[in-house]
Amino acid sequence: MLPLPAGAAFPFVSIPLRPRFFQASAFFPMPVVLLATVNADGTPNLAPYSLCFPHVTPEGHRLALVMRQASKSAENLVRTGRVSVSFIPDRPELMANCKVLGQPLSSAEKMAKSVFTLVPSPRPDAPPLVGEAVQVFECRLVASEVAFEAGDGTPEEHRFVLEVEAIHMAPLWAEVLESGGRGPRLPVDYGFRRGSATWMSRPGVVTSGPRIRPVFEVAIDRPPARVVAEFKAALAHPEAPIVGKIRGDVLQLGLPARELTTWSPSVDLRVDPSPPGAADPTGSIVRGRIGPQPQVWTTFMFFHMMIALIGLGGLMWGVAALTAGGSGWPLWIAAGAVFMHAFVAGAAFIGQGLGADQTFKLRSFIDQVLDP
Ligand SMILES: Cc1cc2nc3c(=O)[nH]c(=O)nc-3n(C[C@H](O)[C@H](O)[C@H](O)COP(=O)(O)O)c2cc1C
Fold it and tell me: Cys staple from 130: which of 86, 154, 214, 367, with CB 3.0 to 4.6 Å?
């Protein structure tokens, strides 16, 4: 244990313990779940919720749920006594759609914009399950109360206690649960305020494509011009950790000159309007490619081309020599070229590892600006 150095100031400030302290006085990690309930006309309703906590009672382990009094989910839960709680994976396009489902729209409007697949429950008369979920809890209402605002007696929130009747899990995660291994990545909300001002854990941008220059796509609920303007403002900030150039809807981001090394990464971004039929037609799709700096990439490609040409030359020479009845030794040049390709690719992978911290810095900056 290290003692605080003599004379050092207390390293915290005290926050007043306000009502709803976990939202109003703290960053309290909570899940982001999708609640499915059934409307009076039999249609489904989906809505994101975070105030969903384990609730331990003498009767056993249950779930506590807190909802705005006026919410459709609360109304449906009171009427039907059933709700399914789907824990969705932390994927940018799903999180962006969660925000859409958190808007005060009619159930029909929300469901038309939903990107989630609804799977019928195996239990009779139960709400559907979200097909993309890592796990779904099917729940039955056991207790509820309405809390009123101090003073004017306006109903403020609905508090529910739920019995978990069944848990369904995607087979991949069920295998991990039983046999061990790396668990799923679930989104975390640090204090629900409003759909638009909620602190969430940074969603993991899923990359694909060749590992040497991976690509990613993020769906954003703002139009392209606004996203580009937000990058412009973030880059213009005097303490911006990242530098960049913007040309129209194309951005090139990198590290400041004082931090640049041979293995420093750069990111090319293109901000396009959402494709037709997207859940949020006024939004954007940000497409990115993480790779080495352009001049390093050019040098890298130059080496690969040179080695490929020399290898091809060796192959042709060797085959010609063999056909003419001579020695096939030039084939060793082709074999050497394959080895050199592997060597240059290996050096690039090592470079990627050395630049990992800077890649994280770049990615955090992009996440910060996009905040999907
Ligand atoms: C990430 C996230 C978490 C939310 N958590 C809650 C919550 O815990 N309680 C609540 O009343 N509303 C919460 N909301 C807001 C509701 O989703 C929103 O009021 C929505 O319109 C409710 O839909 P419904 O009327 O269909 O139930 C959250 C919204 C988002 C985006």
Answer: 86
CB 37 within 8 A of CB 28: no
Rounded to whole angstroms, the Cα distance separating 283 from 224 reads: 7
- 94 CB within 6 A, ligand 1: no
Sheet with 135-148: strands ordered across: 44-49, 33-38, 82-87, 135-148, 155-169, 60-68, 52-57
Q: What is the pLDDT of residues 72-111, one digit of tens each?
A: 999 999 999 999 999 999 887 788 888 889 989 999 999 9
Angle, CA of 357, 361 and 365, to the nearest 5°: 165
For atom 23 of ligand 1, the residue with the nearest CA is 47
Q: What does the domain layout of the chain look like in residue ranges?
A: 21-189, 207-372
CA geometry: angle at 151 spanning 64 and 74, to 5°?
Answer: 30
Compute, in angstroms, the gap from residue 188 CA to the centroid of ligand 1.
Answer: 14
Q: What CATH class has 21-189?
A: mainly beta
pTM of the model: 0.68
